[in-house]
Amino acid sequence: MSDRIARTLALSLLLVALPAFAQKTLRIAAAADLQPLLPPLLAQFEHETGIHPDASYQSSATLATQIIDGAPFDLFLAADLSFPQRVIDAGRAEEAKPMPYARGTLVLWTRNDSGAPLTLDALRTDAIKTIAIANPEHAPYGRAAQAALQHLDLLNTVHAKLVIAENIAQTAQYADSGNAQVGFISLTSALTPRLKGDGHFVRVPADAYPPILQGAIVVRSSAGAAAAHRFLEFLQRPETQQTLAAEGLEPVH
Amino acid sequence: MDLQALWLTLRLAATTTLLLLALGIPLAYWLASTQARWRPLIEALTTLPILLPPTVLGFYLLVLLGPHTGFGRFATRLFGHPLAFSFSGLVVGSVIYSLPFAAQPLAAGFRAVDAALIEQARLLGASRWRTLRSVLLPLSMHSVVAAAALCFTHTVGEFGVVLMIGGDIPGATHTLSIAIYDQVQDFSYAAANRTALLLVSISAIALVLLYSRRSREGSARG
Questions:
Q1: What is the ipTM metric for this complex?
Q2: Pick from A165, A173, A178: CB nearest B68
Q3: How far apart are CA A87 and CA B65, in angstroms?
Q4: What CATH number does the domain containing B86 carry?
Q5: In terms of domains, do A98 and A215 share one?
Q6: Which residues pair with A93 in a beta bridge?
């Protein structure tokens, strides 16, 4: 009697648990600058393939550390090539080289009511007292902003005006809250409805900084590796690349 | 070793602790002695900063200190510069962030003092200020020490608020906890370990000093 109860219980537990194994999921570690534009693409991917993608958004540095330390992700979409390279160096990636999937654009942004003149030359003048950039030590857009300032021979002049945000999203908060008069942010942030409504931007000349190539890797021996490869193919399709371009991430080629 | 960040952190923690004692003692005295019906509301408000995640609190402070609020404009005039990304801004943020750690132990200490003693002091003609100075504070010195220790260490270890309103400026807002975070983000684990060891050591030494003082007082009294 108790045997039969035990068997019934075990069977029903199995039936309850099975769908969790059968359901295909893809766990994506995504750089913070993708947060405004990735969700619709994830929905489209799920609609086409039946694979359910789950994305966690963090700074690329944090995600790389987590993956190296064994976080259960299948795919890493970083904001540059150096952080996926770190995962490769740690032996946690399938690829030998990060796969570039998009190119970021750096813009100079200000609120409409800040009264700040929005040109790179104006950064030199007394009209601009605070400039927000992301941390050049570990944020890809911060690195690009510093390179651009150096290239334009502005870095020494504006050094005392710089306030350093932890990542590109916080840089936008510094500028959008009015605490910094202008900010070097990503085109993806500048094109979000919130920042589009609050301010305007100019593009930093593309030859002023090394291209911000965003790279991806598939995490070694992850359960969703096959799904991760399908998502990378999906990401490189011309239609997907067009959608990304409209939101501020240009095709690589 | 980042001595500038260490000095800045100690300066921030000491300034915050002094300000919080100056603010917290009268506030706690009022909380412990008032019959006002809105006392629970004020007490709840002083506890609120624990409730919000520090980065969220920091985000609201960033907005509050900015040029789009009346408070932000007033503070900019008062200090002569915008408060965000400055040492004064960090002090304001830290005082709000650590307020519960001053008000709660102080109020608890004041409440534990025998009400009859306070009544006698008042009957003998002592003013409220004199009662506080000569009766309440000496009898609840251990709570004052506990509040100071909590405020100091809580400010030394403060991270989310500083991250949000600091702007990572060396000598002004680049504190030890931010230094550790930056080092971890840069994969400089050895440097991060050294800075963390420094942070833990100074906090531990400060605590040992404070608590040894407390036990001396305890044994002197006992």
A1: 0.77
A2: A178
A3: 40
A4: 1.10.3720.10
A5: yes
A6: A219
pLDDT digits (tens, 9 = 90+) for A165-187: 988 889 999 999 999 999 999 99
pLDDT of B122-179, one tens digit each? 899 989 889 999 999 999 998 999 999 999 999 999 999 999 999 888 889 999 999 9
B221 in a structural domain: no
Closest-CA distance, A165 to chain B, in angstroms, reads: 6
% of chain B residues with pLDDT over 70: 95
Which of A61, A137, A163 minimises the CB distance to B85?
A163
**Is residue A108 within a helix (H) or strand (E), and if so which, with residue range?**
strand A106-111
CA B1 → CA B6, B183, B190, B193, B219, distances in Å?
9, 12, 11, 11, 39
Q: What is the mean pLDDT of residues A28-46?
A: 92
Which residue in A114, A177, A181, A198 has the most chain B C-beta atoms within 10 A of its own C-beta, making it the best mutation to test that interface?
A177
* Contact between chains at B62 and A179 (C-beta distance less than 8 A): yes
Note whether residue A6 is domain-resident.
Answer: no
pLDDT above 90 for A22: no
Cβ-contact B176, B2 below 8 angstroms: yes
Assess if residue B14 is contained within a domain.
Answer: yes
Chain A residues with CB under 8 Å of B82 CB are 130, 179
